[in-house]
Amino acid sequence: MYKLIALDMDGTLFNSDKQITDRTKETLAQARALGVKIVLASGRPLAGLQPPLKELDLIHEGEYVLSFNGALIVDAKTGEAVSKCILKGSDYKKLFKLAQELGVHCQAFSPSRGLITNETSQYTEHEASINQIDINIINPLTDIADEEDIIKVMFIDPPEILDEAIAKLPAWIKEDFNVFKSAPFFLEITHKDVDKGAGLLHLADYLNIKQSETMACGDQGNDYTMIKAAGLGVAMENGIDKVKAIADYVTDTNDNDGVAKAIEKFVLNK
Questions:
Q1: Active-site positions?
Q2: CA dihedral 1, 30, 224, 83 (to 10 degrees)
Q3: Residue-range domains of the chain with CATH
């Protein structure tokens, strides 16, 4: 019996219209009625997760969220951190300088300042919009203290520009940080010990749930570790090939109730 289901959002829980279908909501409610923990696992901050948490009635005591790809594991009701693994201002400055050398935009998330960047772009505005948060314009080199907490850094630009920059990344960045694409236009950079897989296992251990009792669904590169770590890793049919290759099961697309079908098959035994 699976006791914890971790769900990516964009491309997985959400369809292409950014909606959670009635079938998926009903399936998740049936799983919860059996005592299964439903955990949203996203690169978004907690503020950006509030609408789907409310829609799925998951803002209660004993409900948890993997936010910022597992950098922060928080209580869905109180926002209190169960686990925190983040960067520092000195990391942001180092990565900002690299972004300038590579010719790509750079932004970051701060626990105290929210979404921060030296200059906005369409993708910064997209991130602010989907998470319903403000953009704060700062100079990372002068306005950020070396010891200030930074949750994650992102290189952002159109795919053709971003991919060209990724091809030029120096070796040290992958030695010092965890680097992955969460969307064609987002390259995320976190603490080297942070990923959704590590977050899933940490939360399961915290809840005294065995790894074999966990299930995870996702579609993109930042879901790879979570799908690999889960007792049952489920990839969406619309997912990237790398994720589908290591999944235990490939379900239908996000536009055809893939999450609901996987839960019906493996949890509800329909």
A1: 8
A2: -90
A3: 4-84+194-266 (3.40.50.1000), 87-191 (3.30.1240.10)
